[in-house]
Design a protein that fits this description.
It contains 14 helices and 16 strands. With 397 residues, it is an alpha/beta fold. Strands 3-4-5-2-6-7-1-8 form an eight-stranded mixed beta sheet. Strands 9, 10, 11, 12, 13, 14, 15 and 16 form an eight-stranded mixed beta sheet that branches. Helix 11 crosses helix 13.
Length: 397
């Protein structure tokens, strides 16, 4: 198991591992052609190459910059037959291509080894992994090499915990000499110390807080790249209590209700709330950018001051005034349940927001601070999917 950050060299390591198996000189004794049974050692090396999709296998594992075709010298380079989904080495070794999304294809064939790339993002990971285990039944020591950027998935943790697994961690910095000079410095500047940085740069599995209300795998499994047509869109606003440089941020989250009746988080426009004018302009900017139907604003702290600030910049647009009458945890629980049911999807990644969600403690705070982004998210999803239980007041500014 090679758990690696982005650009850490894990794909090259996996390809070199396969090359070592496929090009190893076969020194096993030859069995006469008429013999009833051949030695297991004399069998042709058969390797399964498994990625999330066949396109991933071809584009990354085979034809990629660190893929199998690129790393072999000419005399060892395998013949790639895309139509047959097969690689054949001069040594006689053969590799077949498989998609984890089509796990049933792993029924029938058998292998001496397998290379599994980016297992943490496989859609039907457990089924594909189980089918592969039954196919690893040739040779003396059938084995698999997994190369992946880690995520806290059930399967990944299960494999790592297995006593037969050897785990190696690779950080992005370990491969600095092969990366663009400014890449590592810029990624470190942006993400050092964050959960996403630990995962994507250090190759660590980032666990949820033990008492966290959300789970990362709920978010990851429902994540989409594009959203369907929206029936309506809201911008939720959770303004800070004070207006200083050290005050809490102003949570601004955009979400919509799709034609499929699922909620979609479209943007996190949260800003540090130095002045009311700053967050008011940011909220109205999000409202315009996403052609929202209305704004949802919490008025517990500032009361009608929140509304009056917005009114300075815009008239005649609908605002839902919401007032918290229960604790943050109690308000957020129904929304977290919707995530567990797969009824809320994030369109892309919102790292800061997702970190808050998965560190949202039972005391209603995130490591002692107000969960401004998560609060805004709760108001947005509540308005879209739970508004009947909330009975908000709507007014036109």
């Amino acid at each position: 198991m090679l758990l690696g950050g982005r650009g850490s060299g894990k794909t090259r390591a996996g390809a070199e591992w396969v090359r070592g198996l496929a090009c190893a000189e076969d020194t096993s004794p030859r069995v006469p052609a008429g013999s009833a049974k051949r030695s297991r050692n004399a069998q042709t090396t058969r390797i399964a190459l498994v990625g999330k999709t066949l396109a991933d296998v071809r584009n990354v594992m085979i034809e990629g910059e660190s893929g199998l075709l690129a790393i072999h010298p000419a005399r060892e380079r395998p013949l790639f037959e895309p139509s047959k989904r097969r690689l054949t080495w001069p040594s006689g070794a053969v590799a077949e291509l498989f998609s984890a999304d089509e796990a049933e294809a792993l029924r029938g064939p058998q292998f001496t080894a397998a290379w599994c790339d980016e297992l943490a993002k496989w859609r039907n990971a457990e089924k594909a992994w189980d089918m592969l285990q039954f196919a690893l039944r040739l040779g003396d020591v059938p084995r698999a090499c997994v190369t992946t950027t880690p995520r806290a998935t059930k399967l990944l943790k299960k494999i790592i915990a297995d006593e037969a697994t050897v785990t190696v961690n690779l950080a992005t910095a370990d491969n600095a000499t092969n990366l663009a000079p400014t890449f590592l410095a810029e990624m470190t500047r942006r993400y050092a110390g964050s959960a996403i940085g630990r995962q994507e740069l250090l190759g660590e599995i980032v666990e949820d807080a033990s008492d966290g209300l959300w789970r990362r795998h709920w978010i990851a499994e429902a994540r989409v790249e594009t959203a369907p047509e929206m029936q309506r869109v809201v911008v939720a606003l959770d303004p800070p209590v004070t207006a200083t440089a050290s005050s809490d941020a102003c949570g601004i989250v955009v979400a919509g209700l799709g034609v499929d009746k699922r909620a979609y988080v479209l943007a996190d426009r949260t800003v540090q709330g130095r002045t009311p004018e700053l967050w008011a302009r940011a909220a109205l900017g999000a409202y315009d950018d996403f052609e929202a139907d209305r704004m949802v604003a919490e008025v517990n702290q500032g009361g009608d001051l929140v509304i009056s600030v917005l009114q300075q910049f815009r008239e005649n647009f609908p605002v839902v005034k919401v007032r918290a009458t229960r604790g943050k945890w109690v308000r957020a629980e129904p929304v977290a349940a919707l995530y567990a049911e797969g009824r809320v999807a994030h369109v892309g990644r919102f790292d800061a927001l997702e970190d808050q969600m998965c560190s949202f403690g039972s005391d209603g705070s995130v490591r002692g601070r107000s969960p401004d982004r998560a609060d805004a998210l709760v108001w947005a999803i509540t308005d879209l999917l739970l508004s009947d239980t909330m009975k908000p007041s709507v007014r036109m500014l």
